[in-house]
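Researcher: I'd like a structural prediction for the single chain below. Treat it as a standalone chain; there are no partners to consider.
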Amino acid sequence: MSYFIKLGLTITTAIVLSGCASGLGGGNVSPQQESALGAQQERQVLSKVRLIRSGRLYNAVRNVGSRIARVSGRPDFRWRYHLVNNPRQANAFVLPGGKVFVYSGLFKYASNEAELAAVVGHEVAHALRSHGVKGAARKQKAGLIGALLQVGMGVAGVNPQTAQQVNQVYGQGATLGYIRPYSRQNETEADSIGLMLMAKAGYDPRAALRFWAKFGRQGQRVPEYLSTHPAPASRIANIRRLMPQALALYKKSRYARRR
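Model: Treating it as a single chain, here is the predicted structure.
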């Protein structure tokens, strides 16, 4: 058997054997396990950040969060919303089970509650679709394939220099072709679901266009295929495409009808 055939079979075997990883992490995690994981991670985060627990921004986060939670369709989630005192960081994230953290620096771009709702809806959507747990499982699977590939090359007698080069190529390929496209897909899905959530909660979905346009102008951008997030233009185009549906939900919202 030639060297390259042996190497090809090694790579194929690693990919096939990695099928055993499909049940790890994401697919078989129950809602109870996911909630427990989120609560554990929440405690870890809270031990490392300073929170804002009163004032206008705090009230905005709590108000927006409670309204979106009510239309999320997941009353079993123990939704919690935290405002992190970090004016330099424009960020937000969610932990499994509905633990949302908003950084105070985000208010440089969110001028009102409707624009904040675009962010909170996005994060709630991540929690609803279990993106964090599923993404971790995907990275775990990619790592297992890499480990099996390394073992297989050792068994096949591949010289260390070539094995290192193959591992580097695999790592880059897994990141660009497997992990980051999945992450961009999740971000687009969170934008789409989040837009509908904010509309159901009575926030004008057109505010999402204003927020993401402002947010997209910050910093330098790498090409979309290198990023974990869609390019600002792609994000805006997706939101515009869904706007008629979101506006219809907004007009039916019980919150909007009160105005």
